Every structure is written in C-alpha cells, then in structure tokens.
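Entry type: protein chain
Record version: 2
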Amino acid sequence: MLARIAVNVTMSIQPFYLLNVTKFPKNPNNPTPLPIAITPLLSYITSLIFSLFLYGPMVKRLKNRVKPMFVATCIIIVGSLPLLVNSSN
C-alpha cells in the first residue's frame, strides 16, 4: 500500500516539478504542454512494464531481493544524472 501511495504522489507532483523547478516553457494558450502531461503516463507505463516483465527475471538471475533493488536504484540514479545536470544550468 505504501508503494502505491509513493507512486501516486510521485506522479501527481512530477508535472509541478517540471513546470516550476526546471522552468519548462509554457504559453497562455496551452498552460500544460503535452510533454508535461505525458511524463507521468510514460513513467507509470514504464514502471508497469518493468514490474511485469523485467523484475521477475532479474530477481531469479541475481538470487537476492536486495541486489535487484540496488541495481534498479543505480540505474535510476545514473539515468537521471543528465536531467540533473541540464536543470542546474
């Protein structure tokens, strides 16, 4: 239940983060640009695909539940580094 709450909170805060913190451009005719609206949907679909098709084989291959979570965390951190570097400029 806590994981589901974390996903819901993340998906609802993500558009606000993209608009306000990264200063994503918006115009008066379209206050919510399409990339901002699609970002939570793509995040949710990606996590669903990962949990359905990739998590099980990863757990079986690594034989431990701590290692897959560590590997997934490292992948997420490394994948988000370009976003962090771009947003600080």
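Comment: Residues 2-88 form one domain.
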